[in-house]
Amino acid sequence: MLKSHAWFALMFSLEELFCSVDDFCRAFKPQWKQQLLGFGLKQRNRPWSLSLSEIMTVLIGFHQSCYRHFKTYYQTRVQREWAVAFPALVSYQRFINWVPSTLVPLCAYLRSCFGQCSGISFMDSTSLKVCHNRRIR
């Protein structure tokens, strides 16, 4: 299990980040598939050209970068600079279609990076504005 300071050190190396995510995915994916409702049923399972680890690495890399828009990040950094690291890259639109499928593994990975709570936590109690008064509750 990684400590939080070790996780931030990974942002300087794409290879280290990918290895960390890939190790997690190899252990997580079989357990996750067993928990799905359709486990054991015959389903179409066409493989993606990018692995789950590669997709998660690109998403984590975006959040560690200084880019404000994912499309710009994907088209400039990933497709131009990291094309050698990800030889089976797909178009931006295809990648966006795959992102919702990575939500559960991505959240589990990020949760595993920070370890156990030390007992000191912070909570933000800023009020959220609603678009209409009937939706306040």
Write the layout of secondary structure elements.
Layout: H1 4-9, H2 14-35, H3 52-64, H4 70-81, H5 92-98, H6 103-113
Helix pairs in contact: 2-3
Describe this structure in words.
The protein has 137 residues and is mainly α. It has one domain. 52% of the residues lie in helices and 0% in strands. It is built from six helices and no strands. The chain has helices at 4-9, 14-35, 52-64, 70-81, 92-98, 103-113. Helix 2 packs across helix 3. The longest helix has 22 residues, at 14-35. It is globular, with a radius of gyration of 18 Å. Mean pLDDT is 80; it is low at 1-11.
Relative helix content: 40-55%
Order of helices and strands: HHHHHH
Largest beta-sheet characterization:
none
Instruction: Report Rg.
Output: 18 Å
pLDDT below 50 for ≥5 consecutive residues: which ranges?
1-11
Helix-and-strand structural type: mainly alpha
Shape: globular
Could you tell me the number of beta strands?
0
Number of helices: 6
Count of discrete structural domains: 1
Summed over residues and divided by their number, the pLDDT gives a mean of 80
Strand content bin: under 5%
Spatial separation of the terminal alpha carbons: 40 Å
